[in-house]
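User: We ran a pulldown and think these components assemble together. Before we commit to crystallization trials, I'd like a predicted model of the whole complex to look at. Sequences follow.
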Amino acid sequence: MRDITIGQYLSGNSFMHRMDARVKVLLTVVFVVSVFLCKNFWSLLTMVLFVAVFILLSKVPVMTVLKSIKPLAFILLFTAILNIFYVSGGNVLFEWKFIKITDKGLYTAVFMAIRILCLVTFSSLLTYTTTPTALTDAIEKLLSPLKIFKIQVHSLAMMMTLALRFIPTLIEEIDRIMNAQKARGADLETGGFIKRAKALIPILIPLFVSSFRRAYDLAFAMECRCYTGEGRTRMKQMKCGPRDAVASVLAAILIAAVILLNHFFEKLI
Amino acid sequence: MKETIIHLEDVSYTYENSEEKTHPAVHSVNLEVRKGEFLAVLGHNGSGKSTLAKLFNGILVPTSGEVKVEGIPTSDEKRIQDIRKKVGMVFQNPDNQIVATLVEDDVAFGPENLGLAPEEIRKRVDDALRTVGMYDFRLFEPHKLSGGQKQRVAIAGVIAMRTDCIIFDESTAMLDPKGRAEVMETAKKLNEEGITIVFITHFMEEAVQADRIAVMSDGRIIGIDTPKNIFNNETILAKAGIELPPAAKLAKKVRESGISIDNGVLTVEQCAKALFEAAKSAGVID
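Assistant: Here's a predicted model for the assembly, 555 residues in total across the polymer chains.
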């Protein structure tokens, strides 16, 4: 349970750490869009290069980046296998009864895998270099135009902050409840899928009850500190600097390169 | 007589969903918290001390009677923010009162709610963290701190709002002895700086360090006096089911065995000193 790395932040003072969080979020959005614009290996290669440049700029150790991919190994493998068997067309490389593998299928499989890798790596770079507070502040600022539709952007951002804040606390709590139930003779590890799922009920119910109590306490504590959700100021002001300009230019070049490469080379997908 | 900061007048509180409607958690309490004092509220579980704490800054509004903070009644919803700017609160569970994922961001939460300028918030946060001795931990994540450290962060969060009074609602109950000592030291330090402290606890060793102790039993305040007078009052102690602090117990036993010893002994230091004096006057040592 302890190796959950959602929203994990690595403190540092690199180029990417010092970028404005808003620009980083926008950059990630632009990146995700461009990944889906890629139509051949040449444009995909530019994406890989772009990721590599930002890994260097973030000074996050390559091993740490690779670790964030590990939980996705299954999904990667699964999509790759599906693509190999289901994509038809192109030259047949191997045929046996109903199984048919074509070169196009192989290409697509590899292409998809690289795409997913790019997406995961880049978005984990964002969380590695941005504190959860800065991230939610940035999202709040970027979504603030939605206020005209009467959407309570601030409340959404606050919910995100609190959710991130309580992940480690709840993990500790689950550990504690599991140990308590094991001490009472609960069997959590053996049996089939359904039996194990049923065994989780005595864990989840206490967790829910205690979460409600925590929510109640937290609401009191926030009220005591004059929280009303309105008229707040911020200690840390967000400022765009030269770094953000450089990153934006890089992003613009990226999109241009992807579109050009898509145009001049043969489309694969 | 010093000025009063919080004034409770014939205050009762009954929980709405409580099955025993006739049995209020807090029953006709009259209490004056004086400006600048260190008041301990002592009582065992279920004595109503935590409910009393929540009445001080308007988390709960009395069923009958009135709580006034510097003249503002807590029932006045329009002025509740003014009350909370004067009276801050530190709760029991350190995990359930920390809002942000970074120590300094959490301390900034209160001042941010007050709508202060960024530079002012920064200054207050740094000052508050230095006061509680957590400045070096400002960039830590709260869940990586010990219980006592988390509680000190929570205290810093209140200090940064510059309240005149801080209520400690059993803030030491979930801590280990080291954490308890840290919180108590911080509270005493703040009191020396002029902040009024109301310290709600069931630990005798903590209560004896206060200026005054209010003893609660069954929803009522059954005695309010200096620690020395409270712990020499057998009726109050018996009624509230309070045992003497260990050092006072020892002094009492010594006194009962016929050796004359000061009856104001409450802490370990005082006990050691009194025993030394007694031995000296008996000629055992010189």
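The CA atoms of residues 123 and 160 of chain B lie 9 Å apart. That may be worth checking against your pulldown data before setting up trials.

User: Thanks, that helps.
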